[in-house]
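Recap for those who missed Tuesday's class. We walked through two folding examples back to back. For each one, the amino acid string is listed first and its predicted structure tokens come directly after. Nothing is annotated here on purpose, so try labeling regions yourself before you check the end of the notes.
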Amino acid sequence: MRNKLYIGAILFFCGSAMGSFLNCICDRMIRKESILGRSRCTECSCVLEAIDLIPVFSFLFLKGRCRRCGKKIDPFCFFSEILGGLMYVLICRRFDCCRELAIYLISGSTMLLIAFYDSKSMLIPDWAMIFLLLIRIVHCFLMKEDPVVFLIRLSGSFLLSLFLSAFIFYGERITGKEMMGYGDVVLILILGSFMDLQENLLTMFLSSLFAMIYGIPMIKKKQFHCIPFAPAICLAYLIMFLYDRQIMHFYLSLFQK
């Protein structure tokens, strides 16, 4: 029992460090700064020391404020660390195979980066999508996936993406307003190739539900005129990766007498 707690704590620390790192990368890329160099306070520009950079604990110990200038630290930093830590723990609990575990840890980290970037800039970086596609190809070869199964999943993902593209194209012309971005469609095409069409349809429902949960309050507060959809997509697919059997069993049981 103690060993599991120790391992869980180490995994959470590694995940929270990765979440903090990915959030830092997103901020620097959005500001068009170099991703190299020491971390600094965004308010007073002082160089952060080791005590300021301990994931989760530094934020709590410093009460969410810079140790030098006393200005508030963006709560999203703390949120990204918690989210990264939880993701690593849950993925490691779900996958036992070392190869599969490595693939899903890298995939999850990439999805986390995409979600952070889109939530901050309403854009999805092309290089992150390409990297996610390469991960999918590696997954196919390392896990020795049946080519027929892969083609069936890819075809279902392509049909779903094609339907969404048509929906966006005609929806924007009818309403005259910008709808879901085509970057979201490409993201669904890549992530959807991991799953069957039935699982993809259920994941799209979860994505829409998550987007409504966090998006409607944002629009009411006039924080955004539109909702970043990539975070909802990544969250829904991550949940399906982790709990696909349980979710599908629950979903199918709703239609059984």
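Example two. Treat it independently of the first, because the proteins are unrelated.
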Amino acid sequence: MPIKSIYLTIDDAPSMHMGKKVAFLKKHSIPALFYARGEHIKKYPEQIINAINNGFLIGNHSLSHPSFSTITLQECFDEIVATEQLIDECYAQAQVRRPHKVMRFPFGDRGAGPDGAQAHTERQLIHVQQIQHFLKENNFSQIIFGMHKDSFTDSFIDSLWDWDTQDYKSKHIQNFMLYLERLNAFCDTYTSESAIMLVHDFDGNHQLFELTMQFLMAQNIQFLDYVFLTNNMLPKNHCC
């Protein structure tokens, strides 16, 4: 198994079980980054405040989880800004200074399609560039996953992933063995030593979280922390 280390990222927070995740991660000294959906923050603000007070960074995952390639530019901006306001309110209530603003788009859709799809038309390219410019102008930071193969070559401010556990799928929630087979298959076929892992924080899938963590720890996989490139550190030709 070539994979030796993981950068843990958790999308769609908060859920009613987020506090259990925070407690587990804190107990085992596992660094993680939570990307929060505004509509979920409205439902469970206390979960975000608790995570902040326990030292976890809260990133932006939009307000309502749309595909950014299918909505207008103004709607993209509104999705980001509305969630920013909710995250800022949580930091204020926690009485903690927000150290960084980071972004992950729903479905990895930077404006040209899911999973970081490249723009194939001039219209798509302009859409992607304007969204990235908006992030830069609003002081979002780029995450540097230090040992990861793309750490210093990715020109985008937002973050993608390598390993989607698909822990949100009903077939995995209902069948732990099938889920473990998926985890094993990724480890057996992945060719790099580090990966950016994506798990999800939903009300109905928490039972898979500790299963995932126990699987990784049993493989002696190391959990790595990340650093940030702030606005004034970004190259002038940043994206796209």
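Answers for example two:
Helices lie at 18-27, 38-43, 45-53, 73-94, 122-137, 170-174, 176-189, 207-218.
The domain at 5-233 is CATH 3.20.20.370 (TIM Barrel).
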